[in-house]
Amino acid sequence: MKKVTLLLLLASISSFAQYNYNASKEFPYGKANPEAPQQIKDYQLMIGTCNCTSVSRNPDGTWAEPVDITWTWKYILNGMAVQDETLKADGAHSGSIRQYIVDSSRWYVHWYSSKTPSTTFPVWEGNKKDDKIVLYREQKAPNGMDGYYRLTFYDMNNTGYKWVGEWTDKQEKIIYPTWKINCVRQKM
After folding, report:
1. In the chain, N or C: fewer CB atoms in 10 Å?
2. According to the 3-state scheme, what is the secondary structure of 49-96?
């Protein structure tokens, strides 16, 4: 009987080990799994919750009134990926799942939104370059010119970060910002 109890206990401990890096009381945003690619740390300064201000362009090119956002980041998949969620005062909530794929040496970001549900998620891909995370998705300009919608995280530190969404031509000589977000750390 003691052998069976011990075996069941060991099996139980080993099965729970697969969740060592998920959110817990001690680590409410999870932890980076040491077995994950080192790039999992690219987002470490964003893990937690920030109060943010979002501003996007109106159809006429002017900037709209700012919208308040709560942006929360956490480790998921037992610390092997990153998930973020935005809760916006205007009711346009969204989020992303971010996975680094070693074979292609890049991040893949799958985005979803409450206002634009989809059967297939748009995907951005990219990497950390110097002190910025830069992600791209092919997108034509309104005039039909080939280009990208580029997302850049920058000024990342313990007090917050900034984000900008921009349309850019393929050579990145024409850059047109359409969305900006400034975030201040609330919780880590």
Report:
1. N
2. EEEEEEEEECCCCCECCCEEEEEEEEEECCCCEEEEEEEECCCCCEEE
The CATH number linked to 32 is: 2.40.128.20
pLDDT of residue 17: 59
The total number of structural domains that make up the chain: 1
DSSP letters of 112-166? EESSS--SS--EEEEEEETTEEEEEEE---TT---EEEEEEEEEEETTEEEEEEE
Q: Is residue 137 part of a domain?
A: yes
Asked whether residue 165 is assigned to any structural domain, the reply reads: yes
Q: Give 95-134 pLDDT, tens digit per residue.
A: 999 999 999 999 999 999 998 888 889 999 999 999 999 9
